[in-house]
Specification:
nine-stranded mixed β-sheet; binds adenosine-5'-triphosphate; globular; Heat Shock Protein 90; disordered C terminus; single chain; 24% strand; Ribosomal Protein S5, domain 2; binds magnesium ion; alpha+beta; 398 residues
């Protein structure tokens, strides 16, 4: 007698949630990425009790009609890819169609969404992945996802959550990374109604870099901008005197995602080769941009890692970019101050309120996204280069 069974969807969603939803910061990451894919220009993220009791993400992106508002909670339901060949050419942050059903399966979930051309929106409420009610609602154009009581139905997972301060610091970290990668978007993050991060769309990249590394550290870094054979590396690299005892401040982004990739860290180490002592790590913030078909993003359940098709070549371009930046750096007089050479980690909940950009620094003008307005996450048959407003591989200006 056969003993093998296909799992019911609620069970398989919960299993997927085990990989996608590790902690509150993973919920924030997935919801923010969805909003970015939806072309939002303003994001408000509200968190209570380190995300254990509430995560609310409000966007002004394309919104969903009533049918899609229900459809998005189905497993493997996505507007972002359609067929096998699309997997090799992903231009959005999401593509698996599993984040929302996974999140909904372990929370009390509410979605309120309205396309910009619709007169009314749709509200969907679900508990533990089971839809409780659906109906029309009055709401602003865009989407608000509200998630309460994370892991209320998985006490074993709940036990692994850390203190509120720890969970908050993970959330702040991921929001800062995504805000850094999307300078055209305004971000507001609050913990228990206390604003901890507020940054206007279009603020220049050094200002956003300061959110991650502190102003003094960023002041002691040189800009990197190098392209070779469709592989581009931009960002900032520390002058040799500025190092850390861990790799934590070597932040790398590939096509707009904060990720690690085999080979990049070796390339960074080699580029600094004789300038930095063994066991010391110069901070870097590097954006690597390359055609989507030259990088595999489908290698990690939470998409924290990517694999390059030609990793040696990418490493060479990264190394060349850093070496070139260090060669061109102004010499004496700009040696980092002793304070700047110390780790500059921002206290987890330190408020970061950043001004809007000077007019000539408007990143949005270069990425062309604020003017593009909200849109649906692109369908796979989008023309080469993706539709305007697509941000997954937009290069922030330096
Ligand atoms: N904030 C949003 N605004 C507009 N549409 C959204 C939003 N969030 C989700 N959607 C729609 O719901 C679909 C499902 O979202 P979900 O996050 O589950 O999957 P995905 O983003 O396609 O892939 P992944 O699982 O890799 O994140 C998306 O493809 C998108 O069409
Ligand atoms: Mg998603």
């Amino acid at each position: 007698m056969s003993i093998i069974r296909i799992l019911p969807e609620d069970v398989s969603n919960r299993i997927a949630a085990g990989e996608v939803v590790e902690r509150p910061a993973s919920v924030v990451k997935e919801l923010v990425e969805n909003a970015l894919d939806a072309g939002t220009t303003r994001l408000t993220i509200q968190v209570d009790r380190g995300g254990r009791s509430l995560v609310r993400v409000i966007d002004n992106g394309c919104g969903m009609d009533a049918e899609d508002a229900l459809m998005c909670l189905e497993a493997h339901a996505t507007s972002k890819i359609r067929e096998r060949t699309d997997i090799g050419d992903i231009r959005t942050l999401g593509f698996r169609g599993e984040a929302l059903p996974s999140i909904a399966s372990v929370t009390r979930f509410q979605l309120r969404t309205r396309p910009h051309d619709a007169d009314e929106g749709t509200e969907v409420n679900a508990t533990g992945g089971v839809i409780q009610n659906v109906g029309p609602t009055g709401c602003a154009p865009g989407t608000t996802v509200q998630v309460r009581d994370l892991f209320f139905n998985l006490p074993a997972r709940k036990k692994f959550l850390r203190s509120i301060a720890t969970e908050e610091s993970h959330i702040q970290e991921i929001v800062q990374l995504l805000a850094f990668a999307h300078p055209e978007v305004s971000f507001d993050l609050s913990f228990d109604d206390r604003t901890v991060l507020s940054v206007q769309g279009g603020s220049d990249l050094r200002t956003r870099a300061a959110m991650l590394l502190g102003r003094e550290t960023v002041a002691a870094m040189v800009p990197v901008d190098h392209t070779d054979d469709h592989i581009q590396v931009t960002g900032f690299a520390a002058r040799p005197g500025l190092t850390r005892s861990t790799r934590r401040d070597q932040r790398t982004f590939v096509n707009g995602r904060p990720v690690t990739a085999g080979g990049i860290h070796f390339a960074i180490r080699d580029a600094y080769h004789s300038m930095v002592m063994k066991g010391r790590y110069p901070p870097v913030l590097l954006f690597i941009t390359l055609p989507p078909d030259r990088v595999d993003i489908n290698v990690h359940p939470a998409k924290r890692e990517v694999r390059f098709r030609e990793h040696r070549q990418v490493g060479e371009v990264v190394g060349a970019g850093i070496r070139q930046a260090l060669r061109g750096m102004p010499q004496p007089g700009i040696v980092p101050s002793p304070e700047a050479a110390q780790p500059q980690m921002m206290p987890p909940a330190a408020p970061v309120i950043l001004p809007s950009a000077a007019p000539d620094m408007a990143g949005a003008a270069q990425t062309g996204s604020t003017s593009a307005g909200p849109r649906r996450p692109p369908a796979p048959q989008a023309p080469a280069g993706g539709p305007p407003g697509r941000k997954a591989h937009a290069r922030p200006p330096i």
